[in-house]
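Re: [ENG-882] Designed sequences occasionally contain unexpected residues at chain ends

Forwarding the minimal case from QA. Structure tokens:
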């Protein structure tokens, strides 16, 4: 049975699927969202080189969509995995798009005529989308999706579609695929900053998350690459990043470091200072963790460009009639600082995607205390699990950056490939 299932189509899952398929083993790449790409598709640049994120990811997404050895299942969730290594039965539930994928060419005419605008989750709420839409311009597969919860059934999309691809009714479809091995790359979600009410997220309009800032900075995002105050749409004169929001924090049961937050804040502060040197940028941190290749030099570059690093954590964000107020002690100098930023960015940490206990039970696996999927902890099998033939990679196992996700995805791919050819 020369088939493998890869569950989750972020960068780790995409890399794993391509590596397996390039060895002429058939891959079922399963993604619950309408498009593949995961969180990396939301980013503007990658650190420490500031290369365009989609310039790296998009060719891989297109290759997945065209690969003869990959079957792509989007809007699809895994409901059960039964069997053993060499003979797994994976039950899939494909949720309706209300679009005929064989007829839709992704032209977007239906989106243009749709009168409904709602919160766009891909833009982290900074932008809006229609009730029939594509999450972003470079989706794979290039197919629309209709949101039945917000559709008012005005009928305009049915009338405008010359290919009659928009469906009035569609039901979930359950299928089963039989594979030799499984790679789980279900990714992560970001910490909900409303659990730290002292920072005012959701109450103070100009307190945003690092993911919302990513969508602002992105040239393809809702503000066309311009950083704006949410309250009035104006360019901020000063920005403060607050690190470790939902990381290294026992109060919210997140004792671990999220690995990428320091470097992501440094990257975005550099992008802001390079484009708008008149904007003052400060980063309030516990410790700067610049551990990777080129990371320390990237950190030094930000210092040289005038980014202010304050070793201390603000107690609260105070909303006043003018700029916001933050009081913080710089523990390096012992100085008590009063900061008055126009925009506050909360560097939110990573946490397991959806309900980790439910996901682990569905796959017959266990979770670590942190909630991430637990590996076998074997020195020679860093991607193995307690269930032979099922492998884990990427941020499903722990917070990590893009290079580490890709590397681990490749390792899991080779383990799964070995299982697939062994049973033939």
């Amino acid at each position: 049975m020369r088939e493998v299932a890869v569950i989750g189509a972020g960068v780790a899952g995409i890399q794993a699927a391509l590596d397996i398929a390039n060895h002429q083993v058939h891959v079922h790449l399963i993604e619950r969202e309408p498009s593949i790409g995961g969180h990396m598709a939301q980013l503007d640049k990658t650190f420490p080189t500031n290369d365009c994120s989609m310039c790296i990811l998009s060719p891989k997404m297109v290759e997945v969509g065209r690969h003869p050895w990959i079957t792509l299942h989007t809007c699809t969730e895994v409901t059960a995995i039964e069997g053993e290594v060499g003979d797994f039965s994976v039950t899939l539930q494909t949720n309706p798009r209300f679009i005929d994928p064989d007829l839709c060419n992704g032209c977007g005419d239906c989106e243009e005529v749709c009168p409904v605008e709602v919160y766009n989750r891909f833009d982290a709420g900074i932008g809006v989308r229609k009730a029939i839409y594509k999450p972003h311009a470079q989706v794979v597969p290039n197919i629309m999706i209709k949101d039945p919860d917000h559709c008012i059934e005005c009928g305009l999309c049915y009338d405008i579609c010359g290919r009659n691809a928009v469906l009035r009714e569609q039901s979930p479809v359950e299928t089963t695929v039989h594979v030799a091995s499984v790679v789980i790359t279900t990714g992560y979600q970001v910490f909900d900053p409303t659990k730290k009410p002292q920072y005012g997220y959701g109450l103070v309009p100009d307190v945003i998350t690092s993911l919302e800032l990513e969508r602002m900075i992105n040239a393809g995002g809702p503000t066309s690459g311009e950083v704006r105050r949410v309250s009035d749409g104006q360019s901020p004169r000063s920005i403060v990043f607050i690190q470790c929001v939902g990381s290294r924090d026992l109060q919210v049961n997140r004792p671990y470091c999220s690995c990428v937050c320091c470097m992501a804040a440094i990257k975005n502060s550099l992008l802001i200072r390079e484009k708008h040197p008149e904007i003052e940028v400060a980063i309030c941190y516990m410790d700067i963790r610049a551990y990777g290749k080129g990371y320390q030099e990237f950190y030094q570059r930000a210092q040289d460009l005038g980014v202010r690093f304050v070793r201390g954590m603000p107690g609260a964000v105070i909303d006043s009639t003018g700029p916001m107020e933050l009081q913080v002690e710089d523990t390096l100098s012992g100085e008590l600082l009063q900061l008055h930023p126009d925009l506050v960015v909360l560097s939110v940490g990573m946490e397991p995607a959806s309900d980790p206990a439910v996901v682990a039970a569905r796959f017959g696996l266990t979770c670590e205390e942190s909630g991430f999927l637990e590996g076998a902890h074997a020195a020679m099998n860093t991607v193995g699990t307690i269930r032979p033939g099922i492998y884990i990679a990427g941020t499903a196992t722990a917070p990590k950056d893009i290079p580490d996700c890709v590397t681990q995805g490749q390792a899991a791919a080779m383990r799964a490939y070995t299982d697939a050819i062994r049973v033939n």
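QA comment: On inspection the terminal residues look reasonable. Residues 402-422 form the longest helix (21 residues). Proposing we downgrade this to a documentation issue.
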